[in-house]
Amino acid sequence: MNSVSPLSSAPMIDVHAHVLLPRIENAVAGHPALAAARALEARRNGPKALARTVWEQANAGTAEHVAQAPERLHGLGLVPLQHPAPAVEALDHALGWALRGVEISSHAPGRELSDPAYERTVLEAR
Hints:
Layout: H1 22-28, H2 32-44, H3 48-66, E1 76-78, H4 87-96, E2 101-103, E3 107-108, E4 111-112, H5 119-125
Parallel strand pairs: 1-2
Antiparallel strand pairs: 3-4
């Protein structure tokens, strides 16, 4: 019988990646559902004012949720990568709610994580 507890005291990190395959893009090109999905993505990655509302509400809501079971839940905040300028402020906001870090995508529309626009955010996160 295995006596290892499913809840280890070792730190846990959820790491995953998304792979964008050109052949999939080609297979769905022109499909009506693709246009709808892209429109939804554009709304979620909307203007700076909307992004602020989303990260403020998401960070607060996540913090309130994990506070209900702090012995087993840990939260991550959001940072608006589509708007690099307020990303440090969003990081500070998340940490101010005692969240453990932030969730970031592998890219934002038109930018990769290696874009110099993110340098200040990465340095602040260290």
